[in-house]
Amino acid sequence: MYEKLKRVIDQAAPVMPVMIVDNIEQAVPMAAALREGGITVFEVTLRTECAIDAIYLLKKEFTDCFVGAGTVINCDQFRKVADAGADFIVSPGLSDDLLEAARDTNLSFLPGVSTASEVMQAMAAGFDMLKFFPAEQAGGVAMLKALSGPFGQVTFCPTGGIGQHNVADYLNLPNVACVGGSWLLPKEAVAANDWSMVTALAKEASSW
User: Fold this and answer.
1) Whole-model pTM over 0.90
2) For this structure, is 145 an active site residue?
3) Which residues are CB-contacts of 96 (< 8 A; sequence separation ≥ 6)?
4) Is 206 domain-assigned?
């Protein structure tokens, strides 16, 4: 489980796109545009009704990519994502139920933390790769620098409030493996099916 998560995070670097799929017909062209730009790890957030179907579809269409689910907050969602064939699961937080579900399914799980106590709880459960969320609101770069002292063995995927204006500040930190963000998929571009813009943003991100 942990070895596969490391492969996912390594392949995601430097950026794991947060994909909001409102229309199932957009799932494949959205992922294709990202892949053309060099992005091969997709986090489909469970904020829309078709998200599970999108994960299933992308797993069939993009066998060379890792496809996972984000915003997983309970065990029912965890099981549905596992049944859809996802490679990994990302949560904005962590709970005993989600940790147990991860053990039961042996599915790669990236739990979210925002405090030192939560980092310690995750470490006690065997996790040393964590999502830092919401990154900017939880202290951003300064907080991650502070956490690197007592938790030097932990690496993070900060997400929340990260974009072109500050992504380099995060990626320059030694305890950041990659960042998560939705700026690769601007709402206006997705609404207009402007996949060339998505590819251009993905190429820029992949070059960091």
Assistant:
1) yes
2) no
3) none
4) no
Question: Residue 139 sits in which domain range?
Answer: 2-195
Sequence-ordered alpha helix ranges (H) in the chain: 2-12, 27-36, 51-61, 75-83, 96-105, 116-124, 140-148, 167-171, 187-191, 195-206
Confidence of residue 1 (pLDDT cuts 50, 70, 90): low
Active-site residue identified among 25, 131, 187, 204: 131
What total of structural domains would you count in the chain?
A: 1
Which one is catalytic: 25, 43, 60, 136?
Answer: 43
- Does residue 3 carry a pLDDT above 90? no
Encode pLDDT of 34-47 as tens digits: 999 999 999 999 99
For this structure, is 203 an active site residue?
no
